[in-house]
């Protein structure tokens, strides 16, 4: 891009701040009208709840703001690339998306979209697509060359289906070809896809791997979405209601950059809400399996004992790891519970200071407000932001930093 084109793109920043979600909404409506086959690739639940539109608007805005130095966005590029490769997105699809994005800018801005502005955005998108697809090709190569790895979709069999609580069920997934499966970094996820009769569409969803790497199978632990009638939640409920032991489902290779820092000798603190414990459980199992001597603090919150998954498993892990301290919060505590359960939502100020280590690595997983609350609290007590790692399920809609 030349300097004039960069100036034109940066000049759209105020418009994107004010109308970015409107533009993104128009873009998706346009794309799905002209290329309905892409409905099989995109999470239609995130379309209805507007998370995808918000995520796209934020990404476009960030790119426009940093058009002089797009390399600063590499952490975001990697997160998006991880998601794209988990969905088997290919370079040729960037051309389709780009065409609809430029057309949407023209249609939403109307007379304000000059020919020079549209050409500037065409060039900006071309360079972004090259950056993204180039990074994704590296990720595809890593997946295909790893022992037991693959690209695209691979059929897996549900070997075991185990109820962990009133809401959460685990699925143990083995490849139908009986070959090995790629190891993964604790904290990563797999994408699976199922056909949803209600929509007449294949729909992909991401689920964190909730077990340690083992080279044989993956375990995902899925929350049932009570009363879900929209696409967001339908896949989880279909897994609970229709997918039994012996069923075949397609998986993509493990992806994601919310991962346990390897080789760390500092204490580890895991903070989760509800189903957010699943990637953290993989990290914890990995540390215990490696007989890591570091102190570990496990902080988890859920509504009540009935929905508390893996509590017996955590007690077993505690017996294996002498330096694991659990702090469990229930929204509602029954009269029969002893003092080892803290009432109410997770509150870090109720955790004894000696278990919130100054030099620890912190991992937070849960809904956006949950993450923001605990991220800000950790900053307020002097924890470095570089030591705080978080993941919000679904399209990233928060930026705690």
From TrEMBL:
CDD domains: FHP_Ae-globin-like, flavohem_like_fad_nad_binding. InterPro entries: FAD-bd_FR_type (IPR017927), FNR_nucleotide-bd (IPR039261), Globin (IPR000971), Globin-like_sf (IPR009050), Globin/Proto (IPR012292), OxRdtase_FAD/NAD-bd (IPR001433), Riboflavin_synthase-like_b-brl (IPR017938). Keywords: Heme, Iron, Metal-binding, NAD, Oxidoreductase, Oxygen transport, Transport. It catalyses: 2 nitric oxide + NADH + 2 O2 = 2 nitrate + NAD(+) + H(+); 2 nitric oxide + NADPH + 2 O2 = 2 nitrate + NADP(+) + H(+). Residues 151-261 form the FAD-binding FR-type domain. It comes from the Bacteria. Pfam families: Globin (PF00042), NAD_binding_1 (PF00175). It is an enzyme of class 1 (oxidoreductase). Its EC number is 1.14.12.17. GO terms for molecular function: nitric oxide dioxygenase NAD(P)H activity. Residues 1-137 form the Globin domain. PANTHER family: FLAVOHEMOPROTEIN (PTHR43396:SF3). Belongs to the globin family. In the C-terminal section; belongs to the flavoprotein pyridine nucleotide cytochrome reductase family. This is nitric oxide dioxygenase.
């Amino acid at each position: 891009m030349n300097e004039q084109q960069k100036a034109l793109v940066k000049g759209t920043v105020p418009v994107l701040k004010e109308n970015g979600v409107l533009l993104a909404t128009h873009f998706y409506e346009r794309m799905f009208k002209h290329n309905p086959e892409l409905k099989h690739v995109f999470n239609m639940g995130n379309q209805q709840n507007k998370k995808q539109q918000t995520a796209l608007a934020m990404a476009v805005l960030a790119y426009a703001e940093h058009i002089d130095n797009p390399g600063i966005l590499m952490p975001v590029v990697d997160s998006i690339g991880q998601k794209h490769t988990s969905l088997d997105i290919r370079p040729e699809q960037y051309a389709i998306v780009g065409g609809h994005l430029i057309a949407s800018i023209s249609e939403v801005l109307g007379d304000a979209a000059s020919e020079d502005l549209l050409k500037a955005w065409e060039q900006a998108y071309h360079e972004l697509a090259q950056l993204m697809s180039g990074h994704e090709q590296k990720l595809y190569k890593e997946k295909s060359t790893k022992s037991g790895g693959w690209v695209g979709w691979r059929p897996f069999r549900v070997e075991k289906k185990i109820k962990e609580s009133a809401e959460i069920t685990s699925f143990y997934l083995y490849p139908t070809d009986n070959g090995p499966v790629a190891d993964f970094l604790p904290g990563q996820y797999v994408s699976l896809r199922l056909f949803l009769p209600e929509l007449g569409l294949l729909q992909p969803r991401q689920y964190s791997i909730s077990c340690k790497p083992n080279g044989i199978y993956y375990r995902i632990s899925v929350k049932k979405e009570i009363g879900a009638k929209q696409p967001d939640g339908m896949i989880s409920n279909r897994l609970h209601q229709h997918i039994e032991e012996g069923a075949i489902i397609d998986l993509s290779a493990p992806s994601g950059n919310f991962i346990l820092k390897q080789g760390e000798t500092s204490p580890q603190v895991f903070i989760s809400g509800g189903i957010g414990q699943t990637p953290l459980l993989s990290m914890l199992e990995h540390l215990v399996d490696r007989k890591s001597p570091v102190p570990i603090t496990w902080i988890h919150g859920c509504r009540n004992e009935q929905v508390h998954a893996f509590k017996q498993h955590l007690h077993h892990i505690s017996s294996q790891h002498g330096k694991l301290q659990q702090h469990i919060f229930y929204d509602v505590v029954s009269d029969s519970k002893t003092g080892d359960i803290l009432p109410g939502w997770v509150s870090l100020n109720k955790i004894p200071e000696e278990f919130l280590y100054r030099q620890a690595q912190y991992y937070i997983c849960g809904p956006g407000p949950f993450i923001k609350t605990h991220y800000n609290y950790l900053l307020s007590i002097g924890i470095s932001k570089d030591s705080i790692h978080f993941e919000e399920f679904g399209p990233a809609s928060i930026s705690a930093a």
